[in-house]
Amino acid sequence: MMTPVSLVPGFDLWPGLLSPDAQRALVEAVLEASAIAPPANYATPYGKAMSVAMTSLGPLGWTSDAAGYRYAERHPGTGQAWPAIPQALLDLWAALGDPQVPPDACLVNFYGPEARMGLHQDRDEADPRFPVLSISLGDTAVFRIGGTSRKDPTRSLRLSSGDVCRLSGPARLAFHGVDRILPGSSRLVPGGGRINLTLRRARAG
Ligand SMILES: O=C(O)CCC(=O)C(=O)O
Ligand SMILES: [Fe+2]
Predict the structure, then answer these.
(1) For the whole model, what pTM was predicted?
(2) Cellular component per GO (predicted)?
(3) Residue 81 included in any domain
(4) 29, 110, 119, 132: which could form a disulfide with 53 (CB 3.0–4.6 Å)?
């Protein structure tokens, strides 16, 4: 495994870790899964629909409505279990996430040309000792990361297709978000756009 670039303590980036073939296989798997577990623009507890369309893979999926954010065993629209996490992602987690405890959720975010994700912490998981492993596919994202307080200074970087990054240790609860995507920067996703996958351990190990 190549050495990551550590941009902030606990935030590691592996630029171009995934080959074009591996990227294509993941997009295909995710689009197939989306036919079974349709992506939705969930409402936040504040009542606004997110600009990012989301679905999940694995035993647990992330959903949100007026009652709040949570992990659920079933897709809220279909009532069905979420599709399985592809083996390539389980292998990636074993290498860069945790060698012993597998991920139990893979969030799938679809960004159209106007989509963004406001600055937030990933804190719906039971045990922050497990990292969040993020995979970028398709159009480049302008990503922002700060510290564990909303007021901390932030820095901006680009996440391109095939890049893998990890929030762990001191950055596990760092505020982060996507300011915008750069439409047309990649031809990977049919019809354009960006897909972000985050592997997580939502329940205690
Ligand atoms: O799309 C990204 O790069 C970040 C996604 C994210 O922060 C999340 O799903 O919690
Ligand atoms: Fe996040």
Answers:
(1) 0.97
(2) cytoplasm
(3) no
(4) 110
Per-residue pLDDT of 169-194, as tens digits, reads 999 999 999 999 999 999 999 999 99
pLDDT digits (tens, 9 = 90+) for 80-91: 999 999 999 999
What average pLDDT does the segment 57-70 reach?
92
Mutate to test the pocket of ligand 1, among 139, 145, 196 (most ligand atoms within 8 A of CB): 196
What pLDDT is attached to residue 1? 67
pLDDT interval class at 136 (50, 70, 90): very high
Query: How far is residue 45 from each of residues 48, 101, 124, 136, 138, measured CA to CA in Å?
Result: 8, 31, 14, 26, 29
**Whose C-alpha lies nearest to ligand 1, atom 3?**
196
Residues spanned by the domain of 157:
5-38+86-200
Determine, yes or no, domain membership for 178.
yes
The reported pLDDT for the residue numbered 100 is: 97
Q: How far does the centroid of ligand 1 lie from the alpha carbon of residue 133, in Å?
A: 10
Q: What are the φ/ψ torsions at residue 175 (nearest 5 degrees)?
A: -70, 140
To test the ligand 1 pocket, which listed residue (50, 55, 109, 157) has its Cβ within 8 A of the most ligand atoms?
109
Which residue, judged by its Cα, is nearest atom 6 of ligand 1? 177
The domain total for the chain is: 1
Ligand 1 contact, 174 CB (< 6 A): no
Say what the pLDDT of residue 186 is: 98
* Segment holding 93, helix H or strand E: helix 87-96
Decide: 134 in ligand 1 pocket, CB within 6 A.
yes
| Spacing, Cα 122 to ligand 1 middle (Å) | 9
